[in-house]
Design goal:
Two copies of one chain form a homodimer.
Chain A (H helix, E strand, L loop, with lengths): L6 E6 L5 H14 L4 E5 L16 H10 L1 E4 L13 H8 L2 E9 L12 E7 L9 E5 L2 E9 H17 L4 E6 L7 H14 L5 E6 H10 L6 E4 L1 H15 L8 E4 L3 E5 L17 H13 L3 H17 L13 H11 L1
Parallel strand pairs in A: 1-2, 1-3, 3-12, 5-10, 8-9, 8-10
Antiparallel strand pairs in A: 4-5, 4-11, 6-7, 11-12
The complex binds 3-isopropylmalic acid (2 copies).
Cofactor (chains A, B): Mn(2+); Mg(2+)
GO molecular function (chains A, B): isocitrate dehydrogenase (NAD+) activity; magnesium ion binding; NAD binding
Keywords (chains A, B): Magnesium, Metal-binding, NAD, Oxidoreductase, Transit peptide
C-alpha cells in the first residue's frame, strides 16, 4: 500500500475494559498519524453457527482480508457448550505463532531490570490437541501431538524474526529427554531451520532448566521458541519478570502473513467503564502490529512516548499503584509524541 | 527403633562429586550424634539384569529394607540402551512424590528473600508415561496418563504434609482449562482429599498463572501439589528463586513409607575429587530424611548449624563465589553444632 492509502486493520475492542483501552490506542495512533483505518468488530451476543462461537463470521473475514488486526480482552461467556473465543480465533485464523517481546520497562520497577527477550510459542497443536479420553474408570489420557509441518513453520518464523530484528540467538525449549518422539521431532525441525541461518546462534534448553535460568538470570536469553504448553508457561513466567500481563505485548502470527496483536490480560469487568484501566499492554501490542507492517518509524515514536510517560511516573494507573485515569495517561503519551 | 539402636539408612554417594559431599553429610551426622548407620551402595559398572540398569539389585533391596536413604548425584552412562538411573529408582521403588522444601537461605542473596514453600510433584505418571509413537510420517504423539490412584496418593501426601508441618494452604497446579480430562481428574482427586482436611485451605491455580505469580511474589504460596511435568518445571523454577539446585533439598516418597532424599544437582565431574564441591543441597536433603524419621531435634540442630555457617559467609564454596573447600565448609558446620 502506498503512503497515502491507509492500511485497513481489524479492531476487536473486546469486553470489559476492552473498549476503553482500544480507544486509547486509536487516540495515540491518530496523534502519531499512523496510516491505519480501523474496521471495528464486536463479539456477538449469540453463537454464529459458521464459527460455532460468539465470534461473528464477518469479524473473522475482516481479519482474513486485512491480514492485520488488534484485539482487546475477550471474556468467553460461561457454560454454554461453545468454544473459547481466544481458542476459536487461533483455530479459525490458523494463528500458528504467539510472539511476545518481553522487556523491562523503565518506570516500572520489578526484581529484574535486564529482561530483553522474545518468546515464540507454537500455537496450534501439542498439548492443546483436545484429544482426551478415559481408558478405564480412573485412568484418563491426553494426547500431545507434534507435527513436522507446524514445528518447521514456527521454527522458521523464530529464525526469520531473529534475523529481521537484529537478534543473535534462538533457544529451542523442550523436554526431549523424556518426550523423545514429540519434543525430539520439534528439536529436529529447529535444527533443520537453524542450518539455513548460519549467522544466528542456536541452542537447546530443557524446560525445567530454562525456567530456573530465567528466574536467575533472564539476560541469558534472546529468542526462545517452543511447543504450545511450554510457550504458555514460559511466556507468562516472562511476563511476570517485567510486571505482569498488563504490561506485556503479544502478537499472533497466522498463515498467509496474518498478524493479530492482542492484550493477553483479562477483561477486568469490575473496573470496566470507569476510566481506570491500564492500556499499556494493548498499546505495546499495537506496536507489534506496526512492526509487522514494517512501520518501524511510527512504532519507534509511539514506543518512546509510552516509555517516557512511564519513566516519568506521573501518570500511572491504579494497577501500577498510581491514581491516573486511562484518558489522562493516554493524553500524556500523546503529549510526548 | 529405640533410642539406642541405630537406624539403618541406605547411602548412594553417587558419581563425580557425590562421594565428597556424602562424606560431608557423614561427618556432620557423626558430629551431631545422629543415630544413623549408613549402608553404602555404589552404582555398578555393568548393567544388572534384574534392574535393567547400572543400579544393583542389592542397592534397591537395601532401600526397600531400610525404608530411608540418601542419594548423591548419579550420572547415567550415555548411549547404551538402558534406563536413566534416576528414572529407574523412581520406577523400581515406586517413588510417587518428589518433595522440595524451598526457602530463602540467609547468607545467599538472590532477588528473593521471602521464599518459603514446598513443591510436591507426582513422580510416576503424567507426561512421563514413556508412551509415544509416530502416527504417520511427520506426526508424532505422546500420551499423558493421569490415574485416580496416583493422584489421590500424592494429594493425600500433600495434605498430610501440610498438616504435620504446620502449613496452612495447599495449591493444586493444573491446566484443566485445556486438559479437562487428565488435569480435571487430578483436581477432582485433590478436592476429594481437601474435604478430609477442613483446617487446610485449598485452592487451584492454572500453571501459567502460577509461574507468573511465583516470579512476582513467591510468598503467595505455601504447599504446591501437581502432576509430574508441572512439578518438574515448577520445582526447578522455585530452586532458581533461592539460588539453584546446589542449594535445594529434595526427597522422594515411596509406597510403604520409603523416603529417599537426594541432591538433584549434577555430578560436576570437572571438579570431582578436588575438595571444591558444595555439599549444601545434599546436607539440606539429609534433613528431609531426618524429619521423615521424626528426628526433628537433630534436623533442627543441623539446619541451624548450616544456616549459621552460610550467614556468616566466611566458608563459601566456589559455586557461590567463595574460596572455601568442601572440608573447611563442613568443619565450620561441625563447629557450629
Ligand atoms: C485461557 C487459556 C486457554 C490460554 C492458553 O492456555 O493458551 C491462555 O493461558 C493464553 O496463554 O492465551
Ligand atoms: C533428568 C530428568 C529426566 C529429570 C526429570 O525430568 O524428572 C530431572 O529433570 C528431575 O527433575 O529429576
Amino acid at each position: 500500500s502506498s503512503d497515502s492509502t491507509p492500511i485497513r486493520a481489524t479492531l476487536f475492542p473486546g469486553d470489559g475494559i476492552g473498549p476503553e483501552i482500544a480507544e486509547s490506542v486509536k487516540q495515540v495512533f491518530r496523534e502519531a498519524e499512523v496510516p491505519i483505518e480501523w474496521e471495528e468488530h464486536y463479539v456477538g451476543d449469540q453463537i454464529d453457527p459458521r464459527t460455532q462461537s460468539f465470534l461473528t463470521w464477518e469479524s473473522l473475514e475482516s481479519v482474513r482480508k486485512n491480514r492485520v488486526g488488534l484485539k482487546g480482552p475477550m471474556a468467553t461467556p460461561i457454560g454454554k457448550g461453545h468454544r473459547s473465543l481466544n481458542l476459536t480465533l487461533r483455530k479459525e485464523l490458523n494463528l500458528y505463532a504467539n510472539v511476545r517481546p518481553c522487556y523491562s520497562l523503565p518506570g516500572y520497577k520489578t526484581r529484574y531490570d535486564d529482561v530483553n527477550l522474545i518468546t515464540i510459542r507454537e500455537n496450534t497443536e501439542g498439548e492443546y490437541s483436545g484429544l482426551e479420553h478415559q481408558v478405564v474408570r480412573g485412568v484418563v489420557e491426553s494426547l500431545k501431538i507434534i507435527t513436522r509441518q507446524a514445528s518447521l513453520r514456527v521454527a522458521e518464523y523464530a529464525f526469520h524474526y531473529a534475523k529481521t530484528h537484529g537478534r543473535e540467538r534462538v533457544s529451542a525449549i523442550h523436554k526431549a529427554n523424556i518426550m523423545q518422539k514429540t519434543d525430539g521431532l520439534f528439536l529436529k525441525c529447529c535444527r533443520e531451520v537453524a542450518e539455513k541461518y548460519p549467522d544466528i546462534k542456536y541452542e537447546e534448553v530443557v524446560i525445567d532448566n530454562c525456567c530456573m535460568m530465567l528466574v536467575k538470570n533472564p539476560a541469558l536469553f534472546d529468542v526462545l521458541v517452543m511447543p504450545n504448553l511450554y510457550g504458555d508457561i514460559i511466556s507468562d513466567l516472562c511476563a511476570g519478570l517485567i510486571g505482569g500481563l498488563g504490561l506485556t505485548p503479544s502478537c499472533n502470527i497466522g498463515e498467509g502473513g496474518i498478524a493479530l496483536a492482542e492484550a493477553v490480560h483479562g477483561s477486568a469487568p469490575d473496573i470496566a467503564g470507569k476510566n481506570l484501566a491500564n492500556p499499556t499492554a494493548l498499546l505495546l501490542s499495537s506496536l507489534t502490529m506496526l512492526r509487522h507492517l514494517e512501520l518501524h518509524d511510527k512504532a519507534d515514536r509511539i514506543q518512546n512516548a509510552i516509555l517516557s510517560t512511564m519513566s516519568q511516573g506521573k501518570f500511572r494507573t491504579a494497577d501500577l499503584g498510581g491514581a491516573s485515569s486511562t484518558s489522562d495517561y493516554t493524553m500524556a503519551i500523546c503529549d510526548h509524541l
